[in-house]
Structure formats: structure tokens, C-alpha cells
């Protein structure tokens, strides 16, 4: 009786369809802006990371980093079906005692692009990056945000050159014109300014004022092979690092180098993997010594660089490579050195035990550097994934909790670094138990 009266009331007064329409509208709002109701007020308070000589400093204490790469965070946050992976990965990182994640703050052209065309941005994707930063803040994880790719993945410098060519303003079709074309330099500066001054819709904080961001990285793995002297790339680094600092003096800045020594470096023949490494247009010391660059970055991929060395030879080279760059940080640069990517491929004759030996060696070099207060300030696994992300695996990927031995290496490193310089407030909840004496 009550039900039939209600039906007559809804249909007789024409309210049924408006109510259904209103419900649909509410559902749309939730799907589009649901994160606006997520409580980000419970995030852990973070301080800006500073630099004192060869060390990073947080709240007056030396800060050595056990970190990782998950470049895919923004891309996955742009889709509500994959967005939960961001929280899963950041929470897992925090539980392992990791403190910094390196990820892309770019996607130029193509699917889920942040920058659709020069100066034109997709607000949905910008909100995805907002979400990544807010979620990192809530989990006590800091971020290194890279601003463009030297490679073609996610657009990179190739896309910038293509845009200039299509607009009829390009000087050349060469990818390396990214570094010297005035129009392309303006494109990139406009992009950088937009990102650095973005106000996060969830936290209300401009990116340049947010201590969740550990540092900016100018470009992932820059190479300018059309000018092996290195002058073109050096000019670009000088201009762009100065430009970033003119907008944001609170955050640290790095270039994003792989660490190769250039043709004028005395280490080009003694420390490079092979002769080709001196002809890529980059130079580790020269590029990193600039006053506008706060710390140096290095990558470690011995099985990618060598095709004719066995595992033991590659392991020996990787250790020597790391120590050479730490020496540079101590003696030449007087700055911290971060090994922002390191990994061993699971291609060909891959053995899990070999990967663990390689990881252990890298982590041990950083631990010894921390004990001696040297410039080797941290390392970042390439790369961590979560479940059901097989198609994003580039043969270096690890779902860390699926490999007990690797997981143990990671957490042990977090504990060892904490015992040298103390636990950060963000680590106490997760590490106080399994970092206790005797564990």
C-alpha cells in the first residue's frame, strides 16, 4: 500500500525521472571528482630536504635514501580503474622503509598526455599528478619529479621537435634540436613554469611550495650525440637550471644524468663502460658542477652496457663505477650523488640469485658511504610494479613483495641506514618492530 502510493506520488507529480537524473549526476560527480572528498588532512608533516656540502639534510640530520622508481604513477592515476595502484605502491614503499620515489611529471602528446600541445594541458591528467603528490604526502613518501624524457617514451624531446616542425618554426628535424632551438626552449620553459606553479587541487599547495617534492629532475638520461663535445647540452643545462631556480628556490635540482664521462674528462678511458660512452654529448662532472645543480645523478645498468662480459665482470665494473662517482662527489663536485636508477635485466640467462647479488652490492656501497658520511647519498631501484602490471615491465621490473629474498634486502637496507643516521618520523611506524636490536 505504501509502495503503490509512493509510485503514484513519484510518477503522478513527474518526480521519478528528475530523481534518477539527480542520482546519475551525483554518480558522475563522484567518478570525476571523488578524490575531493578524500581526507588528505591526515598526511604526515614533511620538511623540505636541504643540502649541506655532500649530504642531504632533513630537520638538521643527514639523510641517506633507500628509494625506488615507479615512473607510471601519474599515468595510472589518470584512470579510475587503475588509480588504486598508486596508493598500493606508495603504502608498500612506506612499509619497506623507503623514503623517496622517482616518477614522471611529464607525458607529452599521445594517450593520457599531460601536455596535449605546447602550453595546452589536460586538466584530468593534472589532477592525476595532484593525486600522486597528495597520496605520497599522506604516506610520508617524497618524490623526485622528472620534467621531460630524452627518449621517445611518453613524448620526450621527439614530441617537442615534432610540435615545432608542425608549427613551421623548427630549425631542424633532428631530435637534438630540442636543446638548441629557441622555439623549443620556449615550449619547455612554458611547461616548466606551469608545472612548478601548479596549485594542487587536493592540498591547496603550489608544487613549488610543497616539501613532498624532494627535487626536480630536468630530463631523464640526456644525450646530445650530434655534439659530442658536450657544449650544446651544457648550454641547455645552464639555461634551464637557472630558469627553474628563478621560479623555485626551495627545492633541490638535478640534471638526470646517466653518469658517463665526456671526451675531455680524464676518466673517459678508465671509468666509462666502453669508448662509445664519451661520445654522447654529456659529461658527468662538467654537467653537475654548476651552482644551479644541487646534486648529481647516476644510473647503473652493467648488463645493458656490456654484451661480452660475464656476470662477475659486470658486478666488478658496477662497484668500480659507483665508487668512481662517489669520489667525484667528495673531491670534485662537493655535492651528494644519487644513483637514481639501477637494475639487472631478467632477459637471457637471468638467475634471481644474481639479481639479488647485484642489488646487495649496490645497497652495500650506499651503506658504507652513509657510515663514512660520504657523498654517495642513496640508490633507487628500477623499477617497482604492483600486481597485474606485466605489460609495463621492461625486464627490470620487480613486484618486491613477491620475492622474499629481494624484499628482505630492501627492508634490511632501510634498517641499516636508519641505524646510522636515525629513523625519520615517517619511518617509525613501519620500521620500529623489524629494525629492533636482534632482528
TrEMBL record:
GO terms for cellular component: extracellular region. It catalyses: Random hydrolysis of (1->4)-beta-D-mannosidic linkages in mannans, galactomannans and glucomannans. Its EC number is 3.2.1.78. SUPFAM superfamilies: (Trans)glycosidases (SSF51445). Coiled coil: none annotated. Keywords: Glycosidase, Hydrolase, Membrane, Secreted, Signal, Transmembrane, Transmembrane helix. The chain crosses the membrane at residues 15-38. Pfam families: GH5_mannosidase. GO terms for biological process: polysaccharide catabolic process. Its main location: secreted. InterPro entries: GH, Glyco_hydro_5, MAN-like. GO terms for molecular function: mannan endo-1,4-beta-mannosidase activity. It is found in: Secreted. Residues 47-384 form the Glycoside hydrolase family domain. Belongs to the glycosyl hydrolase 5 (cellulase A) family. PANTHER family: MANNAN ENDO-1,4-BETA-MANNOSIDASE, PTHR31451. This is mannan endo-1,4-beta-mannosidase. It comes from Anisodus tanguticus.
